[in-house]
Amino acid sequence: MPLQVSEYSWQQTETAVFLSLPLRGVCVRDADVFCTENYLKVNFAPFLFEVFLYAPIDDESSKAKIGNDTIVFTLHKKEAVMWEALSVSGVDKEMMQRIREKSILKAQERAKEATEAKAAARREDQKYALNVMMKIEDEEREKIVRMKENERIKATKELEAWKKHQRKAEEQNIIQREDKLHQQEKQIEEGKKLKHKSFPRNSTSRNLATKGSIQVNFTPRVFPTALRESRVAEEEEWLHKQAEAQRAMNTDIPELSDLKEEEKNPEWLKDKGNKLFATENYLAAINAYNLAIRLNTKIPLLYLNRAACHLKLKNLHKAIEDSSKALELLTPPVADNANARMKAYVRRGTAFCQLELYVEGLQDYEAALKIDPSNRIVQNDAEKIRNIIQGTEVKS
C-alpha cells in the first residue's frame, strides 16, 4: 500500500500557484510526475501524492523542480483569479476515478498527437533531404551531360580539323601524281620521237617503196590499253617505296642500344605484335608496334595493325589516326596493297561509326567496297550504316 502524502504548502498569485511537496530522498530518476489541467499526481515509492485542482491550469507551461528532498511546482492558471483552495471540495471516490480516467485519456491523446507530430516532422525532414539529394543528383547529371557535350564538340572540332588536313594532303598527293604522270607521258613521247629520228632508211625500204605491196609485222601488245594508261608506273613506284621502306631504319635511338639484335628488326617486332594481338594482349601488341614504328616509320602495316589494337581498346581517335597514316603510306593504289587499303578503310569507318559519325563511316565503307565489291561482310555492314543514317535501324 502506498503512503498518502498530506503535508505540503502552497501559495498563489492571480496567474500562478506555487506548490512545495516535501519527499525525503526524492530524485529525478525515481520520481513519476503526472499532470493535467485538473489533476496532479506524484508517485515516489512508497509515497503517493495526488490533488484534484480547484481550477484548470495550463499543464504545458507548468513546471516542476526536484531537489533537496522537495518537489516545487509552478502551476500557471488558465484564468487570472484567486483560488479558495488548492483542491476542489466535495469529491467522492467515484468522481475521483472519473477525473483520473479522463486525465489519463487526455494525456494519451496528447502523447499520440505529439507522436504523430514528430512522425510528420520526421517525414518532412526526410522529404526535404530527399529533395536536396535529388537536386544534387540532377546538378551532377547536368554537369555530366555538359561535360559529354563539351567532349563531343571538342572531338567534332578535332575531327573537322583532321579531315581538312587530310583533304589538303590528298589534294597534294593528287597534284603530285598528276605531275609525275605528265612527266612520264612526256618522257614516253620524247622517246618515240627519238626512236623515229634514229630509224635507218636502207635500200630494202626504198625497194619496198617501189613495189605495189608491203608486208608489215606488228609487235603483240602486252596491255589492253596504251602504255601511259597502264599501272606499270604505279607498280614500279610502289615497289620502289617498299624497297625504300625496308632500308629506312632508325637505329640511332639511345634507349634502343640495349635491345637484342632481333628486337631491332621492325619485321620481327611486327610478327611479335601480331602474336600478342591473337592472344588478346592488345596493350603489349601496341608496345611492339610502337617500337617497330620508332625503328621504321615507312611500313604501312605497322600503323594498320596498331589501328586494330586501338579499336579493341576503344581508343577511337588513335584508330582513325593510324588508319589514315596507313592509307597515306599505301600509295600509289595498286593490286599488291589493295587488301591492306580495304582493311584501313574498314577500320577507320568502324571507328567513325563508334563515334556516331555515321556519314564519315559510310564513306570509308564505300571506299572499301570499291576495292573489293564482292565482300559480303563489308556490304552488310555498309547497309546497316545506311539504315542507321536513314533512321530505319537501331544503333548498336
TrEMBL record:
Location (main, coarse): other
CDD domains for the chain: p23_DYX1C1_like
GO CC annotation: dynein axonemal particle; extracellular region; neuron projection; nucleus
Cellular localization per UniProt: Cell projection, Neuron projection; Dynein axonemal particle; Nucleus
Chain coiled-coil ranges: 152-187
Sorted UniProt keywords: Cell projection, Coiled coil, Cytoplasm, Neurogenesis, Nucleus, Repeat, TPR repeat
Example GO biological process: outer dynein arm assembly
Lyase recorded as keyword: no
Domain of life where this protein originates: Eukaryota
One GO MF term: nuclear estrogen receptor binding
Domain CS: 3-87
Sequence ranges of the TPR repeats: 342-375
PROSITE patterns: CS, TPR
Annotated SUPFAM superfamilies: HSP20-like chaperones (SSF49764), TPR-like (SSF48452)
Cytoplasm found in the keyword field: yes
One protein family per Pfam: CS
Protein's recorded name: Dynein axonemal assembly factor 4
Organism: Myotis davidii (David's myotis)
